[in-house]
């Protein structure tokens, strides 16, 4: 496990801090249940800056390819993460509550020991689809079912109830 990046969020913004690096998927433990495997990594960049109203915030970018678990077939689903977000830093609970009332603003509480990897993991989880699945007809089980139906469809021409009707007539 690599060393965790912990920043004092307001100090990071005051000093116009910039950090970047890579996070192996193995380290994003809360994502593991959604993943098909733990292959790959995310590259990230976080910078402290002020918004147009001179409020402190963090500009966060994360990119990478991960393998989600398809909810239909439970197979591997390639997914590209291209996350860009600005998080306003609220100095107290009241500011955070006011920021939460505006749907156009994402805000977090400014704390002196902000774990950047946990923050990135939170944002990635929030950016994922509610139900990850292949497009229609792309699941491996759906493809197998369609192929099976074609084989069976060629062999049987009568409806199952038609077979029962003929049995009924003969008896």
Please give a quick description of this structure:
With about 170 residues, the chain is an alpha+beta fold. It is built from five helices and seven strands; from the N terminus they run E-H-E-E-E-E-H-E-E-H-H-H. The strands form two sheets. Strands 2-3-4-5-6 form a five-stranded mixed sheet. Strands 1-7 form a two-stranded antiparallel ribbon.
Summarize the helices and strands and which ones pair or pack:
Blueprint (H helix, E strand, L loop, with lengths): L5 E2 L1 H6 L3 E7 L16 E10 L5 E14 L6 E15 L2 H9 L4 E4 L4 E2 H12 L12 H16 L4 H11 L1
Parallel strand pairs: 5-6
Antiparallel strand pairs: 1-7, 2-3, 3-4, 4-5
* Helical/strand content category: alpha+beta
Overall average residue pLDDT = 84
Quote the beta fraction: 25-35%
Number of helices: 5
Major sheet details? 5 strands, mixed
Number of strands: 7
First-to-last CA distance? 74 Å
Strand order of the largest sheet: 2-3-4-5-6
Give helix and strand order, one letter per element, not per position: EHEEEEHEEHHH
Low-pLDDT residue spans: none
What overall geometry do the principal axes of the alpha carbons give? elongated
